[in-house]
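Q: Sequence in, structure out?
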Amino acid sequence: MASGFVTIHGQLDSHGFISIDCGYVRTPTYVDQKRDITYASDKGFTDAGRIHFVNEQNLQTDLADRYSNVRYFPSGERNCYTLRSLTPGGKYLVRAGFGYGDYDKLNRPPTFDLYLGVSYWTTVTIANSSTAYVFEIIAVSPADFLQICLVNIGSGTPFISWLDLRPLKSDLVVDLYPEANVTHSLVLLSYFRDTVGFGLNRYHFGTNYQHIRSPDDPFDRIWQRYEDVSSWTDVPNKSNGLIQNSTSDAYDAPDAVMRSASTPVNASRMDIYWSSDSSMSVGVDPKFFLLLYFAELEDTQELREFDVSVDDDQLATAFSPKFLLPTVLSRIVQGSSNHTVSLVATSNSVLQPLISAMEIYIVRPVNESTTDSLDDVSHSANPFENRRFSYKELKRITNNFDTVIGRGGFGLVYAGRLENGASVAVKMRSETSSQGNTEFLAEAQHLARIHHRNLVSLVGYCKDKKHLSLVYDYMDGGNLQDRLRGQEPLNWLQRLKIALDSAYGQPAIITVSDTERTNITLWARDRLSEGDIGRVTDPTIREDCDINSVLKVAQLALQCTEREMRDRPTMEQVVEGISESLQLENSSRSLSSSSIKTGTWASADGESVGAI
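A: Exactly. Output:
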């Protein structure tokens, strides 16, 4: 089981896709034969949350199997999925689906925020418990991974049904969707229309109600059929020729979409509208990005010519689509009121207007915390997170720095309390610290981007003249070293789970000097060679762990200390080994709960030299 788990951790499939079935547990992966897409369990993409099955009778009909389970997040303000093996600077389409279906039997559809990394994506509002909601964003990845984060805003428990990532890289077009860049992303408008199943505003205008997506669209964009308009019909006498995109077409709509065109019946105009609804908060003065797709499909000498306008503002005059060649008209449209696109035949036109496809996006600014400016440390839904404090404010919230709760190479750490009563830890750089502005900035930006259940969150910072400080959430349970050696030490099962987190690159950190590590290694290797695992095990857990589980981790740890790299295990092998040890421990505990006691320790002479 472990090896299958590792191979799909954050990885792309043969198409470069990542397709996650959130809460799915039956197998590590499965294949949609119709679309040749491999779907993966979300194990390895997130370490938080719980899973729950959904009664499909509580959801709208004709949904994919991925809506039959969810992962929900009852604890923590911010919980994230991490998608890896990406290209830094690459452009990606990210899509998330949510089907509540009253899975929790509370009949309380939640509202929560969705973030792409540190940048706000959208607010997920489950207005109807049976409706499936889908949200999509096109964005540039600043690193070789992306985090999709669900943020609790106090209006119910966040959850997710599925998550997709698709690379937008074309052999034909250098830069697809150039409006999505390092400063702005494109969020596909969610707005529900009559006779249309989902809120996604990417449409084809054919008469076939089927969605067009992969394999017809190599980027797996989902093109729904626009709402049923009785006065429109399919374009007659279509040519059988293939519609060819040019290198100047930055949107690369597939042939199947461009051929799905409508035209009015016995009329000279077509009107297409959009607005906003409760499924997406568009803001007070949103900036929409509109894309309209046209191609002439009839091999005819008769003139087809029409004007294109948006809210009575002319976009194209006397426009004639080219035969089997796409033309894309675009426009930025401002404002949250109703908007209308009109296609009106000119007096010279013999044929009626036509249209093949349409996309409507909201332009979102990318949070600038990935730049080199300290003033751009990220913000999120909490108004106190990543706030910039003045030195005067720090003096006030720490009561003039009167309570020291820790110290390190950076300086002293003080207890503090914010205006809303939240407890914080204020880490002040001392004048004798060797850490300068560059190191301080790196730590601040790193902490602003990282969110993990074993790591405290960054609340804010201070850069006030010579004063440098980081402000964190305060956790009174102590650090990992306190828990390992304190009055309430971690049990073996808890330690295994932390070790597994660390193996996935999500560590809870404990500091041990090189000298101490070397001594422990030599001492432990001698004891293990004699079969004496008890002498190198923390005495606080000897009566509450499985012998074989501890032995497997001890042997794995020693392999990791081998001097030659070729003798050390890979991280995949480390994950596999810890996972197997975790299984042994869980199995032992299950047997113990059934009154079958196995694998307990006899008392051992001598002192423990450190926790394994």
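Residues 306 and 345 are 4 Å apart (CA to CA).
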